[in-house]
Amino acid sequence: MDFKTFTVPSEGERITWEGDRLVVPDKPIIPFIMGDGIGTDVTPAMQRILDAAVEKAYNGARKIVWVEVYAGERARDKTGEWLPDETLKAFEYFYVGIKGPLTTPVGGGIRSLNVAIRQRLDLYANVRPVYYIPGLPSPVKHPEKMNMVLFREATEDVYAGIEWQAGTPEAVKFLTFLRDEMGVNLDNIEATGVGVKPISEFKTKRLVRQAIRYALQRNRSSVTLVHKGNIMKFTEGAFRDWGYELAREEFGDQTITEDELWEKYNGERPAGKVVMKDRIADNMLQQLLTRTDEYDVLALPNLNGDYLSDAAAAQVGGLGIAHGANIGDRVAVFEAVHGTAPKYAGQNKVNPTALTLSGVMMLEHMGWDEAAQLVRKGIAAAIQDKVVTYDLARQMEGATKVGTAEFADAVIERM
Ligand SMILES: NC(=O)C1=CN([C@@H]2O[C@H](COP(=O)(O)OP(=O)(O)OC[C@H]3O[C@@H](n4cnc5c(N)ncnc54)[C@H](OP(=O)(O)O)[C@@H]3O)[C@@H](O)[C@H]2O)C=CC1
Ligand SMILES: O=C(O)CCC(=O)C(=O)O
Ligand SMILES: [Mg+2]
């Protein structure tokens, strides 16, 4: 495969698939996007930590061969485009990659590149684990009760980008159609913006399938469908109904509903079965705080998943810790939950843990569990020793506040 915007390193090899198995060579080529804003702070720190862990775990027999692919401001400067096709092709070709955050302007300008990457590579499950690492500061009394994995649908919902600005001919045409042809009671058509929220059976079911499989493989107790289906009946309500339907159709022997749990099993979950629940999203946001340990795996439409990920992360260290992955059927691109935090860009200040733990998810996806464990150990020890970046230091007593690069050093020393 020929690329013009970057040179494929001669040293490494490509990760491939053999049937259902990911085949990872000893020197896999991993494409990465540096990211805008704090991307240039956290991405090199993450790479340094992962490199040290791989070196230590395999005594030099394995090595990640990084290759920068371009998106966002660096792509615009280099190629004149925000998201060159080649970048998407690189992720498709190399199958596993990682990205720093990319800026999206509010109210106008380019559409989200982060969303575009997920949509165009069909990375439909945005997976975000949220759990407590001992020693993390928290605004709640029992942060250790938090242990959830969010499966957020990442290709549709209001993120599909089907919307028109107030006063444009498209908005007026669409709203006039709704009023005149569909009988919708609308006034002020000339001064109304409008967006469309597609939620489909196929895309809901494939997301819920991944969530249930994950729960079964890891003996997690429940999968909760989080929706606002009382109000958005045919989108979020349908998300709930299709989720339950999928569980019945494909996992009938391995899942039970909450009603069955109480009626048939007296509240005692039978071994090997996952309890399917659903909650309305506003209630779920308070239950994150009040009944934290009653929730395990969550499956959510795109917008709910976006909101809930940051809210849940706040209970266990915040956005400096929150990590994740975008997983499709073949390709996976790992990324932190946070954005570009522009006010801290280039200051060697922010926490690289979120992107580094996303890198740990990448190592585990590759089957490099020994290296992943070393990184987890180093991060846990640095937090225990209270050697942390500003975000955690400001919530702790007796912490040693360090910069991004120095935190990476502290992790490496403790691996
Ligand atoms: N996937 C992606 O690439 C994402 C991109 N974005 C984009 O990022 C831009 C900025 O978005 P914004 O809403 O400000 O959200 P951000 O997540 O970028 O930042 C919000 C706040 O979270 C804290 N924070 C974020 N990252 C870290 C970190 N690594 N270490 C410590 N603290 C951190 C900071 O808090 P404090 O101020 O309290 O110190 C920061 O001000 C927007 O253009 C948005 O579209 C947003 C989310 C995801
Ligand atoms: O794409 C963006 O700019 C924001 C996306 C976001 O907040 C997220 O994916 O969590
Ligand atoms: Mg978000």
From TrEMBL:
It comes from the Bacteria. It is an enzyme of class 1 (oxidoreductase). Residues 29-411 form the Isopropylmalate dehydrogenase-like domain. Its EC number is 1.1.1.42. The modification N6-succinyllysine is found at K99. Binds 1 Mg(2+) or Mn(2+) ion per subunit. The record marks Y159, K228 as: Critical for catalysis. D-threo-isocitrate binds at S112, N114, R118, R128, R152. GO terms for molecular function: isocitrate dehydrogenase (NADP+) activity; magnesium ion binding; NAD binding. Keywords: Glyoxylate bypass, Magnesium, Manganese, Metal-binding, NADP, Oxidoreductase, Tricarboxylic acid cycle. The keyword Manganese applies. Homodimer. Belongs to the isocitrate and isopropylmalate dehydrogenases family. This is Isocitrate dehydrogenase [NADP].
